[in-house]
Design brief:
By secondary structure, the chain is of the alpha+beta class. The protein has 6 helices and 5 strands.
Length: 196
């Protein structure tokens, strides 16, 4: 869980100017440490050890806390700018807990509603509409799976490892259940049995 949180936070910062701080602040602290060492050569007589302690002192006591604070403030700003926080809170993603146990490599996914791993998607697509897919076979047993997105009807081929598993029926939203009912007759060739 912690690993997924770190990955998600790093996705927010992709191509962000905040990374400049992580390179510039240590250089500034090294400059201050070196300057302080050179100004106090009569007191700091251990050469490299004294220089290293000055670098460590300035970085750990002054610049590192400022860098962490700037990082946290920037992330907070991204999440709370405009309506982003409401969007994050209102857009749940499906996790492994909502999937059938052991719905892994051995199972035939044909005709099943699959949950796409959110790590495969870009952050703006972390929605149930982008995460729920219908495996339409005929070869949903192998490594690659042809599936239809229940949100927009797009057909795509995914690796089996891209899916978390098969969604439990009790977690299937109504809009997705209606879409699945539409897709099942298409998969069997459009044949419907009707009584007289």
């Amino acid at each position: 869980m912690l690993k997924r949180c770190i990955i998600a936070e790093n996705r927010k910062l992709h191509a962000s100017p905040i990374w400049v701080i992580f390179f510039v602040l240590p250089l500034i602290s090294a400059g201050y440490g070196t300057f302080n060492y050179l100004q106090n050569l009569e007191i700091l007589t251990e050469r490299w050890y004294s220089l290293w302690t000055q670098h460590t002192l300035f970085y750990s006591m002054l610049f590192f806390p400022a860098m962490v604070s700037a990082y946290a403030a920037y992330l907070w700003r991204l999440e709370h700018l405009g309506h982003n926080w409401n969007l994050i809170m209102a857009s749940p993603v499906f996790e492994a807990e909502q999937c059938l146990m052991n719905s892994g490599e051995e199972l035939d996914y044909t005709g099943q509603v699959l949950v796409l791993d959110p790590d495969v998607l870009k952050e703006e697509f972390w929605t149930p509409q982008s995460q729920l897919w219908y495996a339409c076979g005929p070869h949903a047993i192998g490594r690659s799976i042809r599936a239809i997105c229940l949100g927009d009807g797009e057909t795509a081929k995914w690796n089996r490892s891209d899916f978390v598993g098969i969604l439990k029926d009790e977690y299937l939203p109504e809009w997705a259940a209606a879409r699945v009912k539409e897709l099942r007759p298409q998969q069997t060739g459009g044949m419907k049995m009707e009584g007289r």
